[in-house]
Design a protein that fits this description.
CATH topology of the largest domain: Rossmann fold
Distance between the termini: 37 Å
CATH architecture of the largest domain: 3-Layer(aba) Sandwich
Largest sheet: 6 strands, mixed
Helix content: 40-55%
Structural class: alpha/beta
Length: 621
Amino acid sequence: MAHLLGAEALHLEYPTRVVFDSVTLGVESGDMIGIVGRNGDGKSSLLGMLAGVIEPDAGRVTYRGGLQLGMLTQRDDLDPEATVGHAVVGDMAEHEWASDAKTRDIMSGLISDLDWEATIGSLSGGQRRRVALAALLVGDWDLIILDEPTNHLDVDGIAWLARHMKNRWPRNSGALLLVTHDRWFLDEVCTKTWEVHDRIVEPFEGGYAAYVLQRVERDRIAAATESKRQNLMRKELAWLRRGAPARTSKPKFRIEAANQLIADVPEVRNPIELKKMAAARLGKDVVDLLDVSVTFGGRRILDAVTWRIGPGERTGILGPNGAGKSTLLNLVAGVLEPTEGRVKRGKTVQVGVLDQQFRELATIGGRRVREVLADSKTTFTIEGKDFTPAQLLERLGFAKEHLSARVDDLSGGQKRRLQLLLLLMSEPNVIILDEPTNDVDSDMLAAMEDLLDSWPGTLLVVSHDRYLLERVTDQQYAILDGHLRHVPGGVDEYLRLRAAGAGNAAAAGTGAGKGNGSGTASGGAGSGAEAGAGSSGSGSGSAGDGQLSGAQLRAAKKEVSAIERRMDKLSSQIASHHEQMAAHDQSDFEGLAELTTSMRALENEIAELEERWLELSDQIG
């Protein structure tokens, strides 16, 4: 691998604080590096220094001769008078770019819905962002730096971008530096992780899941000062190892080490107990959408949707931008009436909405955070423990010194923390989260998920953050061509349906139909789900795409058992080799070398078996 970029003893400070102090880093060809850390700790500043657009106060950044570096910042530098086509391919003739498969794929993946002759000034912020990303990716770069590239991309666009970055360069060629709060994207694309914290940059091997394990180990060593974060990340690791599909097959860490770390960590939530508590608060009836249609300006957004939402359900809503996800949530929340059909709500339903615009904070913008919290109830119970509002806010990563700040003066991430706290303090029994990850870093997301784990109620989530959807919900539905369809296979199944044009089949009424599914806590018959929509709202369903048949399942379980027996045997042999090496004549270098070579072969074999074990475990579920 060739050296592309080096940073030596970087120091950067602003009038109020030091951001980095003597940071030394290097980037090699083949590196796919994700950068994580709290908002404000300097992730974007680090990218700016490495790209040469921010001058460090001390230290230097060097580049390989002839290095081609491309960067996507969070700023919009596009010419508002330029057309979409000119912004992306410049003066290149159509036959030139159209003959390039890579360029055609970028156009299809990012801007296929945009008018080629539209001016940049006529586009929305999200559309301009996609044009800027496409314009960068059509270039030929040795090193690409991306600052929050998944902003304004839907699930389909994020999946496309992940595939593109993984396949963009030949093996051990090119490199990527990436800042994003999308943890699924980090895990899918990155082979290394840099954590920015406390004026330093700490490297870890692997993507997000591997970083979580290594950070837990680091936190265990510093338990006295890191106990709060340690417990949170251990809970995160427990979820990664136990339940998330296709989540633990990528990171290169030892199964035994991970299992030891989570041995005393309970499941992230008890769905049966939470549903019992939710039913006690809500009764059997929550919200039923009955043959509901919504039309705007002659366009049918939702078409004859029937959806029965039960107490304690945790549901993620999938669909491309403009599919009607927010419209669906507005029907549930009661802020929108259907064009056809009716919405039936339980008598005890109290809906709380975490929206994208901070509407509920607008009326309190001039007040101090401490004053706002004083208006709330004095205690809030989580997992049997009482917390004051200030303690809850601190648990969400809110610094004590910000309690005296005015709401309007808070950053976007701080407003999101306060918004979530006020929502929980209002004690709704149905919570709607509409893109809750905006302006939120990965630590805040983990804290948010931790609070929601113990919240007894019905949860509906719309988010392009795949990791969050899989983490906090137990089932997913997709809006395809105006119809609501249960997807037992989650995001992977949704992406397969989109790729196969399943939305057209749904519109023709060939199986997906109205997407009716039972929403009762007991998983009863409900409204009578049609084929392909799933038999209940519990997330279970008949074997389908991505699921093993009975014979395949038995064969997979048999292979897992065989692998576990073989790994036990190899572990014993490795332990024996360690004993032999300890007892061996330390002056016999040839004998020691033979033992070392033999032990390395055993370790390589067990590593390969672990990979296969993880792959089969994901398939078995």
